[in-house]
Amino acid sequence: MTISERQKQTTINVQEKANLIWAIADKLVGVYKPHEYGKVILPMCVIKRFSDALVGTRQAVWDKYDELKSKGIEVKDGFLKRASGYLFYNTSKMTLEKLLTDEFNIGENFRMYLQGFSENVIDILNNFKFEDEIKKMEDNGLLYLVISEFCSQKADLSPDKVTSTDMGYIFEELVRKFSESYDEQAGAHFTARDIIYLMSDILIGEDEDRLREEGITATVYDMAMGTSQMLGCMTERLLELDKDASIKCFGQELNEETFAIAKADMLIKGGNAENMKHGDTLSNDHFADYTFDYIISNPPFGIEWKKEKNAVENESKKAGGRFSVGLPPISDGQMLFMLNGISKLKDTGKIGL
Fold first, then answer.
1. C-alpha span between 304 and 328 (Å, rounded)
2. Integer CA distances (angstroms), 154 to 11, 19, 249, in order
3. Residue 176: left (phi > 0), alpha (psi -120 to 50), or beta?
4. Among candidates 287, 275, 288, 353, which has minimal Cα distance to 318?
5. What angle (nearest 5°) sits at the alpha carbon of residue 108, between those of residues 100 and 48?
6. What is the mean pLDDT of residues 142-151?
7. Looking at domain 191-352, which CATH architecture does it have?
8. Where along the chain do its domains lie?
9. What's the rounded Cα separation, in Å, for the pair 176 and 190?
């Protein structure tokens, strides 16, 4: 099978999986409007992905948790991560499947199950504001039905069935559907993979031979990361050149839901999810004084920077600051993103926008 044939097959499989998951949204009709479906579907996909990933080691986590508790050990995080084999875990003896055995108490039991996750997962769910949706589904008799659908075979999201790359595609497709139902431009939330791969190839093309010979240790930054797929694609390309490459990814995102997906994706991949930051890049820079080997980003174009005006103007007065070279018109927010990127490049670094 050629590369293009494999890519075509992957696209078909991802589309089918995304369509099957999105079909669960049909159960929400009447209680949710079409543009609100993502409030349930996206966090439930993240929860199911984590749940399916932990199936193989959950007994080991439970045993380790009980052992640590019996010994009075308070700091359990590191032990439990090692037991789970991931940088996250769940200590609850409840499972999504067990939830279905008690329909009348499913809301209480579901909350107990979610509270068993490690703090980094709970932070992701908080960014989704998922408690609001749990209560809404509970009040309208939908919670059991939705969890039941996500426990079906069609919603199997275990890493051995759905790779990290394919999971990224699925998230992209779901976000696209959500955006279209809200009559938004899908491109405001993600960039097509073909474009990202082209950007990645341009960034590393001139260095390819050197990188193959010397090995790769690189930092990659996306200042408007969305669901972090640009970071993922860039990492893929670098690993193709050097399977032992050491790559550290950093990203910042304003939208809470897409930030939550990005952090979840990084956790599943085993990367440092703490390098995924939430906030406005222009007014609340989480990577001040950082510099990177590669910057790859699709910042918002055609936007004003009126709401960031005070913070940006204050920073422009600081010698050597991101915006100290001068400020563009208030309508030219993309220029500020470009200045942010340039300020974070190493002397040998490259940026693709």
1. 10
2. 17, 10, 32
3. alpha
4. 288
5. 55
6. 95
7. 3-Layer(aba) Sandwich (3.40)
8. 3-181, 191-352
9. 8
